[in-house]
Amino acid sequence: MALIVQKFGGTSVGTVERIEAVAEKIVQFRDQGDDIVVVVSAMSGETNRLVALAQEIMDYPTPREMDVLLSTGEQVTIALLSMALEKRGYGARSFTGGQVRILTSDIHTKARIREIDGTRIHAQLDQGNVVVVAGFQGVDDHGNITTLGRGGSDTTAVALAAALEADECQIYTDVKGVYTTDPRVVEDARLLSSITFEEMLELASLGAKVLQIRAVEFAGKYKVPLRVLSSFEEGPGTLISLEGDEKMEDPTIAGIAFERDEAKLTVAGVPDVPGVAYQVIGPVSAAGIEVDVIVQNAAEDGTNDITFTVKRSESDRAKQILDGIQASIGAREVLLDKKVGKVSVVGVGMRSHAGVASKTFKALADESINIQIITTSEIKISVVIEEKYLELAVRALHSAFELGDPDYEKDGGQ
Amino acid sequence: MALIVQKFGGTSVGTVERIEAVAEKIVQFRDQGDDIVVVVSAMSGETNRLVALAQEIMDYPTPREMDVLLSTGEQVTIALLSMALEKRGYGARSFTGGQVRILTSDIHTKARIREIDGTRIHAQLDQGNVVVVAGFQGVDDHGNITTLGRGGSDTTAVALAAALEADECQIYTDVKGVYTTDPRVVEDARLLSSITFEEMLELASLGAKVLQIRAVEFAGKYKVPLRVLSSFEEGPGTLISLEGDEKMEDPTIAGIAFERDEAKLTVAGVPDVPGVAYQVIGPVSAAGIEVDVIVQNAAEDGTNDITFTVKRSESDRAKQILDGIQASIGAREVLLDKKVGKVSVVGVGMRSHAGVASKTFKALADESINIQIITTSEIKISVVIEEKYLELAVRALHSAFELGDPDYEKDGGQ
Lengths: 414, 414
Known about the structure:
Strand content of chain A: 25-35%
Oligomer: homodimer
Mean pLDDT of chain A: 90
CATH superfamily of the largest domain in chain A: Acetylglutamate kinase-like
Helix content of chain A: 25-40%
Largest interface: A-B, 37 and 37 residues
Largest sheet of chain A: 8 strands, mixed
Radius of gyration of chain A: 24 Å
Order of helices and strands of chain A: EHEHHEEEHEEEHEEHHEEEHEEHEHEEHH
Number of strands of chain A: 18
CATH topology of the largest domain in chain A: Carbamate kinase
Structural class of chain A: alpha/beta
């Protein structure tokens, strides 16, 4: 008998029919004797409906009132799911974030969870009830309703699992788990049975957006075993765990992540003096533009080239900013290349295995793909390349590291 | 500067446009320097939408979860109205029933208010904010969400006015106030500028359903001055107050109430022994059928006729019950007349003014309307008559007691 926290997102509870299906799934676990705490999002479409109502009134609705408004979305779902469980003869009790004292900071629309008091939930579990908690929401010290911002329900689930010392936190989603790369790009991409938190962080931030990065960080920090699995299909999904835990596969490389729609900016010929990188990047960040990889290389003439990437949609704005400061920082020129993409090889194994970098470069060279930028971290090698080679590069690397599903031929890609 | 509690029902906040109009109205009072606490219902249609969702799952949804579900309706409105006020530059703070500690009994879907802690509201008013409270809802001792049942938002408003010692509780509705009778039946029905609580209770329960009877009782008990007025038109409405307070009109009669769709049941020839009335009425009430007027008259042969009225829609069921017990109570026969209506003359003045009864009977006799049943209370005379004479009776009595609007000819019925 285990204590499991299960989270179902908006698509999984998008209709009454789907809420009934979720109830069926929960009931299976109850029948095995598990204690279940369920976290749910608003029914898909509901949040948009509420936002539209608010925006009929104001373009930028009062954040405090926005939280009062949006938090009703999950409240509807908890009530309906509890009814669906009661209908099946299983005791269920719904709770809003405030009712189970999910205490947060007071930054409306993007509050952070500070503390959860598990007393009330444990009391309900002891009485044999399924506890159904509204995700995405909490209360501040003064009892004002707060919401956690994008992906907040994942965070609620992980935080609850940590506070309750749950045996596992299961995030149900519309994919079967985490794959070695995007199956739409590489046909034989393999479902990973497990992955480490660090690998998941790199994969999530690099484009495999199965789970919100904040929830993964939280789970890693509090050592909550996290499992990603499908609401709609059977299967064990992917366990995200501490390094070495139940790590069944080849430990070297977990997967190949990639990011389309990047743009590369180069500020060439800046003086090689302290503070120049800050002078270049500072104004771009200050404009709210997210900067991804940054590299700097000293040239032999005592100047530097500083190169970084941004989202393509923000690249023109970044270029304008740099053009504006070019003279004052004494740069020779500002170059923009709007057609680049990024591919990353991710795996904790590369810490202890030499040769991952050279194998990466060889695989790309074999396909005559030119590497424009290389950056590395302890568990990741990223390269920026011409965008038209992106899919080719992903497939080449996936194959070079032998990540393909050995059963692929057999079952036709399923 | 006064403290005013204002309540706006579902129709008054049915669209974003109407919520904006409500905000405009509130702003006018703020500009006069009044402190305002607003109580709102769910947007019209929203409660039905939520009920339909629940009933897709269960025919009789779990009451606790029904309250969690339905309470979101008002929560949406408080957020939107607060935004509309903020947009106009007026500070506003929304609160759910739980947040302002509207403590209720734990009978889900029909809880009763026990206590309200006004501290938080007073603190907000002191800061110059309009306080917007979700009607219809509260929390029980364990923090579970409760709802008050039909008309609950009126009750919330009155209870808040009592707890905060407000100067006035204003109930905004889709009529201009309380009339001497239904203007659809009597063209020159007059808007009353004031009425007593007792008169209002009699008029409300008899068909002039402007205000929920529970809210009127509550207001009377806690001596909260209550005003009914229109959300959509200007005008002072009708003040419901303690007897004598600002009572401007002729004190004798306040109005003529009436009830259509009644049915009359007579259990004839029952033995004149103690307990027989209970034997007749008991089983009918036990079946959940609401009994209205009851009269009993001893005949000369030592038997009794017991006559009472019920809603027409429930009369067949009542007849069946009586047929079933006829033999055991020794009644001669059970008669059902499905075509009756009730007309009532209401006014605190009749306590001290003789002749109201005889004037009533004469007015009906002049129109050759036969009276089937007469019942009286301290401030009311009710007669049951053949239904086809109902409108005629109402007009005759309205005219006999000179209740018509003296300005009617002038302004064409406005």
